[in-house]
Design a protein that fits this description.
194 residues; mainly alpha; AhpD-like
Length: 194
């Protein structure tokens, strides 16, 4: 099987299963789903997850509460780097592209985001970014052996326990999201607008 081709490019995602709104639903239920997932232009991914609408609503509640304060863009960049790490390890090209673009934006460092996508866990990174990647990688690969010693490098670099929790919660959330995306569809190059 070929290695995944990670990219900062925008990608589309094509489902392998029907979207909820393509099924035999009442107009009222379709409207309820579309309203919840942001209208008729909602992503196919969310519309597939809406096949189990109660689970989608519960997942959205958790997702909204995983985020910490968006005003600290550097912290948001570290959170996104944790999610990029998890997505890279799991081979989720779509999620890695989304989160790596956020890393590039929040940390104002597109070359760092591209280097990480290209080189993965072995990429040469600044100290804090390296500590974020190492913690997210350990949580992704061996969660049962994750310990307080794995938190120490982040603490030593000045991150608070809340900031560390923010990074790890997001990495863990996207470990689940990666697996959903990888089993329900596949990324494709984005269609060019004419």
């Amino acid at each position: 099987m070929p290695e995944p081709q990670f990219t900062l490019d925008f990608l589309d995602w094509v489902p392998w299963v029907p979207r909820a709104v393509d099924g035999d639903l009442s107009d009222r239920r379709k409207a309820e789903i579309e309203a919840f997932v942001a209208g008729k232009n909602a992503s196919d991914y969310l519309l597939v997850l809406a096949n189990d609408f109660d689970s989608l609503r519960a997942r959205a509640f958790v997702h909204r509460h995983v985020y910490a304060d968006e005003e600290n863009v550097t912290q948001a960049g570290y959170r996104e780097l944790g999610a990029t790490t998890t997505s890279h390890i799991n081979g989720c090209v779509f999620c890695a592209s989304v989160h790596a673009r956020h890393v590039a934006n929040y940390l104002k460092d597109r070359p760092l985001a591209q280097r990480f996508l290209d080189e993965g866990l072995e990429a040469d990174l600044p100290a804090i970014e390296r500590a974020v990647v190492d913690a997210a990688a350990k949580l992704t690969v061996a969660p049962e052996s994750f310990s307080k010693a794995d938190l120490q490098p982040l603490r030593d670099l000045g991150l608070s326990d809340l900031e560390i929790l923010d990074i790890l919660n997001y990495a863990a959330f996207f470990a689940n999201a990666n697996r959903l995306m990888l089993t329900l569809g596949e990324p494709t190059p984005q269609k060019k607008l004419r």
